[in-house]
Amino acid sequence: MLLLILKRIVWAIPVLFIVATISFGLMRIVPGGPFDEEKSLPPEIIANIKAKYHLDKPIPEQYIIYMSRLVKGDMGVSYKYVNRTVNDILGDAFPVSLQLGLLGLALAIVIGVPLGTIAAVNRGSKLDFLSMLVATVGISIPGFVTGALLILVFGLWLKLAPVALWESFRHMLLPALTLSLSPAAYLARLTRASVLEVMEKDYVRTARSKGLSSSKTIVKHVLRNALVPVLTVLGPLTAIIITGSFVVEYMYAIPGMGRFFITAVSNRDYDLIMATTLVFAVLLVIANTIVDVLYTVLDPRMQVKG
Amino acid sequence: MSTIEQLSTKRIESGNPIITVWRRLKRIPTAVVAWVIISVMVAMAIASLLGVPLTPYSFDQTSTTLLADPSWQHLMGTDELGRDLFTRVIYGSRLSISIGITTAFVALVIGTIYGATAGYCEGKVDSLLMRGVDIAYSLPDLLVMILVGVLVGRGTQGILFALALVSWMGTARLVRAQFMQLKHEEFIEAARACGQPVFPLICKHFLPNAMGPIIVALTFIVPSAILSESTLSFIGLGLSPPACSWGTLAADGWRSLRTHPHLILFPSLFIFLTVLSFNFLGDGLRDALDPRTRLKK
To answer: Rounded distance, CA B134 to CA B126, Å?
Structure first.
């Protein structure tokens, strides 16, 4: 197990190296730069700024400077938020996004898994149809529409929760709910399929025929096995949450990674774009590693192969 | 089910496969409703493209009633320049729907060629090609699209390029799986034994038999492309005016959510209805094409 985790970490290094290189390359191919403003600056000032950020050097040299700093954990400086280093900005933004993401993920599981289970247990009934209708609506509705509706109804009309900023737990309610709906719908569809499959297994029939009550069979035998494939979608789920956070943080004015990423892209704030991309890549690698470890823990047959 | 019944079902089901699928699809109510909604949307987009005046207003018409609430005169109200929102939504459908369909078409072409190569060659070529897809597939689409957008620009072509880049991988995986399965079928072996060259073999025998799942996958690409485009436009990293898609309309409406919520609600409703319909149609098609449900009804 420890060996597996170590193996994964060793594997992650080249992956992250490639991500860093590609994003560096992308940022340097792009025409225009962070200092192209509407009011053009005198050439001396531009030259000075470029020299300060090493942007006047040849690109291979810039790459070496960037990489050698990155290895030491220094992700550079922001070109737009003057005098703030990227580490500093991400240090503030990351915990916010992590909180939002984890809360959204938790809500998604709390909503999605029971919905899918109910649908599967009552297969073919009206309840099944209704649950899957809700789930299909959930994957069809864009995040900004859910967000706008929640803000309108709960924020502006009923005044139950604040609609912007990130100050107290109450501020987290609407954003987390907005973030959770699409992964919840995804989980519901997946759980339904998985539960349906497990319910046809022999050991479930055995448990039922031995007189175990229907609800106990579902909790003890069906769900336990059906949740294995559900847990293993943590990778794609993380991707959904990251994508969702762009929209949610934009709508609710939350000072998290997603919002900084969006503003950095529109400002061409190179180092900040590269750093956020790298952090997202690290998150995905971690999520996929957890999945691999979970696989071996939950399904001992996998250990023999690995 | 008795043998006779089975035989009689079989007789009904034989014949043109498209008619068969259509007949089965008609038994699924959600799919029928979805089909109707999609037809209406597409018809509306095509009609406006051909210049049929669907509303008494033109796209740039400026009326004196700015930011009017929905009324009989302006079914969806007007925006801050007095433009009729319903007219704008119809105009928006052109761009949104054509982006969705174009993306699906590009995904079909690239995904099929890529997947067919991997599935047909197997071995080292396959594992090399598919490893690339695996890595790219695990990246969040929107993140890739935003980064690509920085490079290629944020016009319609830039968005289409970014969408095409992230959309073909699912199709490639699917085609590969289909090809691998088909490769060991007897009729393929027979065709090969008869000396059928590779290219006609693929076109005549592999592709027609892999078509069902591919069409289902395409049906799911259209809504996800529409969603991605509108989301990108909404956060300001996609299309922007004067381009008019449902996403840019929603982005416009977002700014006046507090005072004039109708400006975001109507474009959102159209996005939602279209995406929902395509998802239901995809679900319906999958059930209609699934051999396991073939003899059930």
So the answer is: 12
Backbone angles phi, psi at B197, to 5 degrees: -65, 165
| Mutation choice for B interface testing from A245, A246, A248, A278 by most B CBs within 10 A | A246
The alpha-carbon gap from A266 to the nearest alpha carbon of chain B, in Å, equals 7
Task: Return the closest-CA partner of residue B88 out of B236, B257, B250, B229.
Answer: B250
Instruction: Tell me the residues of chain A between 69 and 98 that have a Cβ less than 8 Å away from chain B.
Output: none
Q: Which CATH architecture has domain B16-289?
A: Orthogonal Bundle (1.10)
Residue of B151, B271, B283 lying closest to A30 (CB–CB): B151
A33 vs B contacts (CB less than 8 Å): none
Please, which pLDDT band fits residue A184 given cuts at 50, 70 and 90?
very high
Q: Decide: helix, strand or coil at residue B256.
A: coil
Q: Which amino acid is at A162?
A: P
Within 271-290 of A, beta carbons closer than 8 Å to B belong to 273, 277, 280, 284, 288
The single residue listed with the structure tokens 């590693």 is: A289
Contact B234 A277 (CB under 8 A): no
For residue A85, list its beta bridge partners. Answer: A77
Give φ, ψ of B84 to 5 degrees.
-70, 125
* Residue position matching structure tokens 């991605």: B228
Distance CA(B41)–CA(B55), nearest Å, equals 15
CB distance from A156 to chain B under 8 Å?
yes
Q: What is the pLDDT along chain B (297 residues), one digit of tens a residue?
A: 445 555 444 444 456 777 877 888 888 888 899 999 999 999 988 888 887 777 777 666 666 677 777 777 777 777 777 777 888 888 888 899 999 999 999 999 999 999 888 888 878 888 888 888 877 777 888 888 888 888 887 788 889 999 998 898 888 888 888 888 888 888 888 888 888 888 888 888 888 888 888 888 888 899 999 999 999 999 888 887 778 888 888 988 888 888 888 888 889 999 999 999 999 999 888 888 875 554 443
A261 touching B (Cβ < 8 Å): yes
One-letter amino acid of B41:
M
Which backbone phi and psi does A77 adopt, to 5 degrees? -120, 155
Phi and psi angles of residue B78, each rounded to the nearest 5 degrees, phi first:
-125, 160
Mutant choice from A28, A144, A259 vs B, greatest count of B C-beta within 10 A = A144
B150: chain A residues, CB-CB within 8 Å: 26-27, 30, 265, 268, 273
The dihedral of CA A175, B227, A182, A290: what is its sign?
negative
Look at chain B and count its residues. Answer: 297
